[in-house]
Amino acid sequence: MKRSFNLLSILGLPLSLALLGAALYIKRPDARDFIDQRIPWVKETVGKYAPPFEVKIVRVATSAIPPPTRTASEEAPMNEPPTARPSFTSAPPLAPRQEPSAPVVVAHPFDLGKVCEDAARWPKTVRLKAPVEFPAVINGKVTGKLLAPAGVEARVVKVSSAKVGVEYHGGGAWLDFERTDFVERAQLAWR
Fold first, then answer.
1. Does the pTM exceed 0.90?
2. How many CA atoms lie within 13 Å of 169's alpha carbon, on the beta-carbon side?
């Protein structure tokens, strides 16, 4: 008896794994970092369409909840009849509850000069604010020009006092800080 396979039985598992990987890439920051480090072309093709992750910090105030008061019948043992408290005695005053103090934040003013001097403080990538023309490089040779649209990410290679050297698809360019979001990303990392 000859056994036949349909296309769904052959491609079902690989397609479901690809769909699972895409969902993880879109929803989980740690999965996106893992995939971007191991498969760089995914970041260039799929990553530019994936929404950025937002971190929201929510501070919840703790409220002072007084301890529950007990009635005379709850305090008396079951065998004994409840006794009335004299009206002149009152419950001892509650000790003032101290709210947890907010963490002290020491402000260090942003210093672009220190960022430019220390490569560890550079952002790994920057987003272009305007279209930029890069040399098109194939197999290490310049073959023409490539126009990178605004909003695309380029890898930071070098930083001078007023410019950032970026690489996009093998071609490099020196750009003013104003043409990228270098300063904004450096300020976020500074805090």
1. no
2. 18
Query: Which pair of tokens denotes residue 154?
Result: 């380029």
Q: List the domains of the chain with CATH numbers.
A: 9-45 (no CATH), 112-190 (2.30.30)
Tens-digit pLDDT profile for the chain (191 aa)? 566 667 777 788 888 888 888 888 888 877 888 888 888 888 888 777 777 766 555 555 555 445 556 665 555 555 655 555 555 556 666 666 666 666 655 566 877 788 888 888 888 999 999 999 998 888 878 888 888 999 999 999 999 878 899 999 888 898 988 899 988 888 888 76
Which residue's entry shows tokens 């699972």?
20
Q: How many CB atoms lie within 10 A of CB 25?
A: 20
